[in-house]
Amino acid sequence: MDRISLHDCVIEAISIEGQNLSLIFEHINVLSNHPMNNTGLHMYTGRAIIKFIDYELKESLLYDTSKVEGKKRIIVEEDAQKVKIPKLELLVGFEILKSEELHVSEESFTQRFDGIASRKYNSDFGYCVIKCKKIVIKWNEFIDKAWFEDR
Length: 151
Description:
This protein has one helix spanning 76-79, and strands at 4-5, 9-17, 20-25, 29-30, 43-45, 48-53, 56-64, 81-84, 95-104, 109-116, 125-132, 134-139, 142-145. The protein has 151 residues and is mainly β.
């Protein structure tokens, strides 16, 4: 996962097949150092899937601001109510702002996604931590340069 960027990528849907979780993205950004990217540029793809083999949801938390009243500026960590979301539903429509590998070994991976939840969750900030034995990333085509290529 260190050769792709998920910043500003949206998870359109999730699919669970047995112990495998697939996150379906509208696009992902494939970095220039990825072995399957021979363009020399950071590129964005069409629809992409990240599959977590033998996954376990470790944590899913929403910073709920729906009951915060009378504040012009909300400090999420202080003002929001922390709500644990027991299922992966938080990830549907989730815009990733940060993706972080918390643990990598030969036996397992632990990945954290921080970002903005869907309108269902008031577009509030949240995060999800997933542990798995293997990660598979699939995409069909490169569309164009990634938004950050010229920066």
